[in-house]
Amino acid sequence: MKRKEIPSMNVPALFEVLRVSFKLGLTSFGGPVAHLGYFRAEYVEKRKWLDERAFADLVALCQVLPGPASSQVGIAIGMMRAGWLGGVASWIGFTMPSAILLAVFAWLLQGMDAGEPSWLHGLLVAAVAIVAQAVWGMAKSLTPDRPRATLAVCAAIVTLLWPSALVQILLILAAGLIGWTWLAKPSVVNVQEAPLHLSKRGAVLCLLLLAACLLGLPWVRPTSPLLAEFDSFFRVGSLVFGGGHVVLPMLQAEVVPTGWITETQFLAGYGAAQAVPGPLFTFASYIGAILAGWKGAVIATVAIFLPSFLLVGGSLPFWSTLRGMPKVQAVLNGINAAVVGILLAALYNPVWTKAIREPIDVALALLTFGLLVFWKVPAWVVVLVCGGIGSLLY
């Protein structure tokens, strides 16, 4: 059998990937689902870099991997077009605009009492509605039956009673085990071969490197504050199932109890992250900038996205086989249900407890929720409106 060739570096294609992904990074508002729509229009319909079936297969893979699904799809398409460096170029182009904007926002907050500006409280109230919308949408799609809804409620209760990063990780592992043994097995799906030509040896090396970092970084983090930062963000990027808004409770458990940043700073950055294009995971850039300036922003951004490269490269050669296994699908069903519960707990603490102080806060949160859910107003518009209303009301 003829061996498949791994895509080699193609400089013109590399710069083309960077240029197109940078345009998407500047214009892709609306969250992961909207990002995939932009990708499809640009990569499938306009440029025809891949067909509908190949795109759907990539989306299906990245939806079940931990980490930011839309960024992972972009990385995979970049790899298809220009090899491994194409994946890096795609990530840089799509991620850099929002990462820079959020780092600048963190810099502007330096030296300011984050509890004082009235517009900042408006951002905190906007975060209540945005997280509530995420819980609403995810619950409808990920907990459609009694067993999964029960699992989500139990996960929320445990998270509220024992709020820590370790508890969240144990919940995800336990939910996967419950899915394996208890949840109804979905039917097997017919799939095509994964569209990327990556070797299984390279894939195994990626997964081994991921495991080595997850196991080794906690041992070396006490030696340096920057290593401690890298370890925290790498772990979040490796273990956040559901992407997008689910990064909120995981990051909060890593950086607020340790005293790295205050809850007000944390939620202000989360609100600001809704007003910029690109992936929500660049929220890490904001936190890193508060911790250690531009150096911290770079470390946090690289650390939280690095697992995406290792997971995409490590799973594609095996995806067609794994995706059709009923047991694997059942495990993912359990994990996704627990993710809904973890996010539901975060809606109360810290989001609600920090932002809602009096009836006018509840009124503004309800107005914002209605604009998002029923009037379909983009989140970034709602955030700007709440900041403006906050400056007038508080």
Helix count from the secondary structure assignment: 15
Task: Provide the gyration radius in Å.
Answer: 20 Å
Q: Whole-number average pLDDT? A: 83
Sheet with most strands: none
Order of helices and strands: HHHHHHHHHHHHHHH
Overall form: globular
**Helical/strand content category:** mainly alpha
> What is the percent of helical residues?
over 70%
Q: How many distinct folded domains?
A: 1
Main location: membrane
InterPro entries: Chr_Tranpt_l_chain (IPR014047), Chromate_transpt (IPR003370)
Family: Belongs to the chromate ion transporter (CHR) (TC 2.A.51) family.
Organism: Tumebacillus amylolyticus
Give an account of the 3D structure.
- It comes from Tumebacillus amylolyticus.
- The chain crosses the membrane at residues 84-107, 119-139, 151-182, 202-220, 232-251, 271-291, 298-319, 331-351, 363-393.
- The protein is mostly helical.
- It has one domain (11-393).
- Helix content is 76%, strand content 0%.
- It is built from 15 helices and no strands.
- Helix 1 (11-27) crosses helix 4 (69-109) and helix 5 packs across helix 11.
- It starts with 10 loop residues before the first helix and ends with a helix.
Quick recap of the structure?
This protein is mainly alpha-helical. Helices cover 76% and strands 0% of the residues. It has one domain.
Question: How are the elements arranged and paired?
Answer:
Blueprint lengths: L10 H17 L4 H15 L5 H13 L4 H41 L8 H25 L3 H16 L3 H17 L18 H21 L4 H15 L7 H9 L7 H11 L9 H41 L2 H30 L3 H15 L5 H15 L1
Protein name: Chromate transporter
Subcellular location: Cell membrane
InterPro entries: Chr_Tranpt_l_chain, Chromate_transpt
